[in-house]
Amino acid sequence: MGQTPSTPQPDTTIQVIGGGLSRTGTASLSTALAILLEGPVYHGGTQITLGPPTEMPRWNHLLRTWLRSDADQTLSLLHSLTTGYVAITDAPASHLVPELLTLYPDAKVVVTVRDPQAWSQSIDTATSVVAPWFMWAVLLPLPGMRHFMAFISLVKAQWARVYDCETQDKAWIYQRHLEWLREVVPVDRLVVFDVRDGWEPLCRGLGKEVPKDMPFPKINDSKAIERAAAHYIRKGLMRWAMILGVLVLGTAWCFRTRI
Question: How far apart are CA 162 and CA 114, in angstroms?
């Protein structure tokens, strides 16, 4: 979150895969990569929630296919979703790194890191925004977003598969994710990066020159998540009000015609 959706460009291919967990600076990294690579970046949180309403169902289809261990179909769907972008970051792509490396073997994998305790608190805050039991009902009338709760469940299943566990211990998950990346990414293709360090380590890892007279983008998207949640809750409630209004008027009209 924290950005606007990107538009894919023809003859553009993935050069960087973001392996960092959500809430580790993926929005800042995405903006930085768009500058360095001069092309559109697919930031999962932004594209899936703010992009075309078809995007979330496409990811749900891909994740179900991946969970069935249908490797060929998974790669085909993933290629379709990533075509036209220079990089992809954030969930759920951050847990599809092996598949993305199969499609783009020359790509570098950048894993954004932060203090594990701060990450755990940030994840808890972001999760609480979408946790209310009534959320699925509120989002039901909205194209695209009506699939959000299914998407969340599929991402949880994805995490359980990658980490081979059902634990909710976020400190363990954070460390296990870094271990997993070191297991699946060749050492010469893995770049570990803290967005607080700015341009130099990122550019060094990617073999790019540091942009002149341009500060490193620092995007805090926690407020953007809250704004997006409030927006969709308000929009969903308005849509329900319209639906109920039509039903009431229709019922009243039918009743009057029978008198």
Answer: 21
Does residue 87 have a pLDDT over 80?
yes
**Other C-beta atoms lying within 10 Å of the C-beta of residue 199:** 19
Q: At what angle do helices 55-67 and 148-163 cross, to 10 degrees?
A: 30
Confirm if 53 and 143 have CB atoms less than 8 A apart: yes
pLDDT of residue 195: 96
Question: What is the C-alpha separation between 129 and 131, in angstroms, rounded?
Answer: 6
The whole model's pTM is what?
A: 0.85
Q: Is the pLDDT of residue 250 over 80?
A: no
Nearest Cα neighbor of 149 from 206, 80, 232 is: 232
What's the CA gap between 173 and 169, in Å, rounded? 6
88 φ, ψ (degrees, to nearest 5): -135, 135
Tokens found for residue 208 = 């790019």
Which pLDDT score, from 0 to 100, does residue 127 have? 72
Whether the Cβ atoms of residue 6 and residue 41 lie closer than 8 Å to each other: yes
- 2 pLDDT higher than 60: no
pLDDT tens digits, 117-166: 999 888 887 776 666 666 767 777 778 788 888 898 999 999 999 998 87
CA distances from 220 to 27, 31, 225, 227, 257 (A): 8, 12, 10, 13, 57
Q: What is the mean pLDDT of residues 1-6?
A: 74
Cβ contacts of residue 146 below 8 Å, gap of 6+? 139, 140
Q: Is the dihedral of CA 43, 45, 50, 55 positive or negative?
A: positive
Q: Which residues pair with 87 in a beta bridge?
A: 16, 41
Task: Note whether 92 and 158 are within 8 A (CB).
Answer: yes
**β-bridge pairing 16-18 and 41-43:** unpaired
